[in-house]
Amino acid sequence: MKNPLTDITSQLLSLPTTTFKENSVREFILDFCSQRKMGLRQDEFGNLIVFAKKKYPTGSLAFVAQMDHPGFIVEKKATRGSTTALSYGTGDHQQFKAAPVSISTAQGPVTAQVSDWSSAAKDKANRVTLKVSGEVSPGDLGMWDLEPFKEENGFIYSRACNNLIGCALILNLIESFARKSQPLSFYSIFTIAKEAGHTGAKYVCSSEILPKKVIPISVETSSVLPVAPMGEGVVIRVGDSQSIFTPEITQFLLETAQQIQSRDKEFKFQRKLMDTGKCEGSIFFDFNYRTGAISIPLGNSNNLNPDTGKIDSEYVSLFDMECAAKLMSKLVDNTPKASAIIKRPLPRYKEEKGSMGQKFLV
Questions:
Q1: 161 and 113, same structural domain?
Q2: What is the pLDDT of residues 80-106, one digit of tens each?
Q3: Whether the Cβ atoms of residue 261 and residue 236 lie closer than 8 Å to each other
Q4: In angstroms, rounded to a whole number, what is the distance separating the alpha carbons of residues 271 and 293?
Q5: Angle between the 23-35 and 4-13 helix axes, to the nearest 10 degrees?
Q6: DSSP character string of 286-326
Q7: Distance between CA atoms of residues 6 and 39, nearest Å
Q8: CB neighbours of 55 closer than 8 A, spacing ≥ 6?
Q9: What is the average per-residue pLDDT within 44-52?
Q10: What pLDDT score was predicted for residue 91?
Q11: In the chain, which end has fewer C-beta atoms inside a 10 angstrom radius, N or C?
């Protein structure tokens, strides 16, 4: 019997995606949720919102993940075997020169190689010169020429773990409700263009598609840290490089994880800051949403192997993903507690005096 989590993950990771070219992933999610008769909305930017066809109470959760990954968008037809492409999120890495790229075209994949980098300030991107082995057209999508999906020794390797792993975890949660024929009691939000300044998440917030009474929970991968090793469970992300998320929501995540651990000794979690990058939780937090975040430690973040200085597959621990799946499921069960935490009254103290006139608030 197939493991739904790994099955969904393998299907998602096999799809090409990059910033502003999330079409294949979006169509997969649309089809996945339509087959399971979930409510769907696509906004004018291309973000997807999945919901139940009922009114949600205060404190309902919204799991959020982006559909893009750093890659390349071909700008023009190749001349003398060379073209240029816009690149979001890859950075200007000199070590990536001569790195292999695979471009998806109407005629099939075309191999390419990075030969130079420059700035494309108007498009808020890098401009990459590519040597190509065949015909390419404007708008064709390129990714590093790495294996889409491999499961080995308890790890999942891919050209695009970040952040299709987050999307897979949310779809796995939706699938669990569909299998039980249960109506959804949470939102799911799949955003575009995180690598272009969190454009999709900014639009969701500024357009007020999501009611303020809802609690966004960012579900991401985050670069592995010495204090947050792989294989030690899902990370309850206290904050990122910009923000510390809503303490009451972080506490709700922590109490739920502790509840699971009291009954499931194989379940593990970590409570860490994860401050090497900015996640979409900070965007929601900026817009005054009560916000939390969970993450999966990620190896070779954005395909840069820190040991070799070259491109390589990203990888995550399947155990960490399974712990995240358990936590997300229990968070939904505990939604009434989230509402209670939000409404928790301020503490009240009474004054007492010590034997020498000291004043205590207890």
A1: no
A2: 899 999 998 876 566 677 789 999 999
A3: no
A4: 11
A5: 150
A6: HTT---EEEEEEEBSGGGB-TTTSSB--EEEEHHHHHHHHH
A7: 24
A8: none
A9: 89
A10: 67
A11: N
Query: For residue 125, what are the CA distances in angstroms to 29, 92, 97, 130, 316?
Result: 27, 10, 17, 15, 27
Q: What is the pTM of this model?
A: 0.92
Handedness of CA 87, 90, 91, 93 (dihedral sign): negative
Range of the domain at 263: 4-69+148-342
What is the spatial distance between Cα 313 and Cα 159, in angstroms, rounded to a whole number?
5
The total number of residues written for the chain in this structure: 362
| Tokens representing residue 61 in the block | 């959760």
User: What pLDDT score was predicted for residue 344?
Assistant: 59
What's the gap between Cα 295 and its chain centre?
Answer: 8
Residue 164 to residue 44: CA distance in whole angstroms: 21
**Residue 108 DSSP SS3:** strand
Q: Is residue 350 part of a domain?
A: no
For 241-285, the pLDDT digits (tens) are 888 999 999 999 999 999 999 999 999 999 998 888 888 989 998
Question: How does strand 125-132 pair with strand 187-191?
Answer: unpaired
Side by side, which strands form the sheet with 314-317? 150-152, 155-158, 314-317
Claim to verify: residue 76 and residue 65 sit in the same structural domain:
no
Enumerate the β-bridge partners of residue 352. 360
- In this structure, are 156 and 267 located in the same domain? yes
Q: Are residues 79 and 219 in the same domain?
A: no
